DNA sequence: GAGCACTGC
């Protein structure tokens, strides 16, 4: 297949930010493409001063002093993440026991940034500079002043302290002042920095809404929002808009509420964009021929290809390897590596190793390389223009993974991956016309593509009662909201007035899991099987505890049968956990039984956290030993809405959901596959050509009525008792 | 007899 390319006109790293309405705007100077190693060894201070953000130190501090909200647009390598928190500390924003908080969407980034900053400041991590992520609090009371954390953790912290008035490293009694003395106010002058806000995770969006709300009560709270170029304007609009009435500006303290955008250049290199001249029919095939073209015509440098999922990636790795084999010398020198989250740790690490001299590394990856992982040495990027995205249908209450076109923002992000070490090239497997006229500017925020049950619970726990009226950066659909309220009501987590019930609702909000799982845990406390149910909840919260992969299917299926329980997958998990525990948590035992050791370690961690929380909220930790009847009852108490009945005359194992009469099937990975018991409850649905139930347990229909009479009242006569 | 983009508490 021949490939025609048309050089594009887009500059992936353009940095002019529009600011019409009177906001201060700093434009960057000339674009430097320097690397720090050019100067050889330099002291940390010198290195810090060489970062692009250093030029803006005074400007940033001035803006944070005078503006409620500052939006920083910082390209890759600008140094904003590591430097700005230090500038704030140096300027006295952490004096008097106050904490400067800086959030990241991902745990790994939190750890990396915190340790880098601690190193630059010459302090031990966990002292002045600390971090908090799930399972790990590396901060020290009275000592830590710079705290890095995931946005999820900050959200959890706000449940105990909704106005963040206690955001300090030691106890201090401060009242929220209506009109307070200067020195009282001083204690409340906090800065919170939300980094990578453009990624628009659910937690970031909730935080943005909450912090905007808090600012009205606490004008002395300062926000720094870091964002990519394209999204900066909408972020600024969000903070500019006063929701109902126009609120008076806080002129008294010389503070302006209008947000301002400050743009800092990065250290990326220019990336030449090439578009396909014709629309591409088959992007796997097109990606393969483009890689071969690059290898044939372009100078040395590694290639990164963005495809959508495991299937596409494995197929193209195969095609490229075949090509290398058949054409021999011409195409040799290629090392082709797949990259997706489902790979084992060892396989993932291969992509970070350097290619031997004279060899070219080709990494074929999912979206994981767009945000989560940074690969060094990439000079060429091939962008299919697609990724797998999650969509939620509130009518059927089902989440689907769909291959969908990416946004222009994503396309720029992908292209930028080619310019980290030297000028690079990006090959887009779509036309320039398509890019300009058919791609959306920004992706759909996660909050508009997800179920809202967890989100509603969190907001309720934060004291936000009018959720439909909440000031979102992007509003979730009314249908999704109503569906969430309905589910939470049926779980008896919300009452008739949509308030959290006591104690169930408040307990569910404390548990960091899906409300149906939390409800199951609470029920298990009353039924006397919380030890078992907490283990099951922990296993359900990791991706999979089985080792899967090509060539070992038969063996791993057989291994699974050794643990299989007649009741279904949940009880099977208990058998695996028991065996793992009895082996002394041995990795050899896992290996022998085709159980994923890393997943089991995570199960242990989650289990410990859940036990701690259970104790705190007053649940009884107790084992039911071998009475699996109560285990099934507890599962039913949380998941009654997922009950299904086998169609009597079905020969292919078709079930129908009680709630919506949806056609569903037991997933082949379940121990109940082909067993087809009459009544089952599933944990989740995956939809491909059919709807498959994953993690299934048999139930007794009378338990359904017992667990949720309110829910099954109507169906009672015509379904359950037939 | 099928297949799971990626985070997070």
From TrEMBL:
Boundaries of every Helicase C-terminal domain copy: 287-463
Pfam families, per database record: HA2_C, Helicase_C, OB_NTP_bind
Domain Helicase ATP-binding: 61-248
SUPFAM superfamilies associated with the record: P-loop containing nucleoside triphosphate hydrolases
GO molecular function, one term: ATP binding
Record's catalysed reaction(s): ATP + H2O = ADP + phosphate + H(+)
Residues in the signal sequence: none
UniProt protein name: RNA helicase
